[in-house]
From TrEMBL:
Residues 17-166 form the Flavin reductase like domain. This is Flavin reductase family protein. Its EC number is 1.5.1.-. Pfam families: Flavin_Reduct. Keywords: Flavoprotein, FMN, Oxidoreductase. It comes from Halomarina ordinaria. Belongs to the flavoredoxin family. GO terms for molecular function: oxidoreductase activity. PANTHER family: FLAVIN REDUCTASE LIKE DOMAIN-CONTAINING PROTEIN, FLAVOPROTEIN OXYGENASE.
């Protein structure tokens, strides 16, 4: 199969099916109206370690930005919560399209706890949560890239060995395509050459 991106209606299925697995940013924000929002984004990754910076890329909705993107722009703050296997169903439930005045925390029965440095709450059960301040917001076509500088991190001691996050203990969930997800349970090692 050969694809000319200019000749197809959408590249979504090709990109999301081939760029796998993708980590999931379960992003919590608070709107100017005080409503807490929680939504998953699989276009997500680390951008820099100094300053520590993450990015996630919410697509636009008919009529404008998603609640998450708008809240991050309006308040300048958000939290990226890491999703593990135990939280996968709740994470999926928060992907439902809800009215702007309804909280996904309440809708999915997800416990929120107060953050340390930013206003939006974090997911209580998340093994790792990154509190972020908005560093930049870039509009690209029908998508956006939200950059956040990490200003505080919460790491559950259960996923730590020797003062470091232990990937053998963090059963993180990744996004594949369609209705498929994966975990980090199937691992192998290779030593990087000099």
């Amino acid at each position: 199969m050969e694809i000319d991106p200019r000749a197809v209606r959408s590249m979504y299925r090709t990109l999301s099916g081939a760029v796998v697995p993708r980590p999931i940013a379960w992003v919590s924000t608070t709107g100017e109206d005080g409503v807490d929002n929680l939504a998953p984004y699989s276009f997500f990754n680390v951008v820099s370690t100094d300053p520590p910076t993450l990015m996630f890329a919410p697509g636009d909705r008919p009529g404008g930005h998603t609640d998450t993107a708008r809240n991050a722009l309006d308040t300048g703050e958000f939290v990226v919560n890491v999703v593990d296997r135990a939280m996968a169903e709740a994470m999926n439930e928060t992907s439902a399209t809800l009215p702007g005045d309804e909280s996904e925390f309440d809708h999915a029965g997800v416990e929120a706890v107060r953050s340390t440095r930013v206003g939006p709450p974090r997911v209580a059960a998340s093994p790792v949560a990154f509190e972020c301040e908005l560093a930049d917001f870039v509009e690209i076509g029908t998508g956006n890239v939200v950059f956040g500088e990490v200003v505080y991190v919460h790491v559950d001691d259960a996923v730590v060995t020797g003062g470091k996050v232990d990937v053998t203990k963090l059963d993180a969930v990744g996004r594949l395509a369609g209705n498929y997800y994966c975990t980090t349970a199937d691992r192998f090692r290779m030593v990087r050459p000099d």
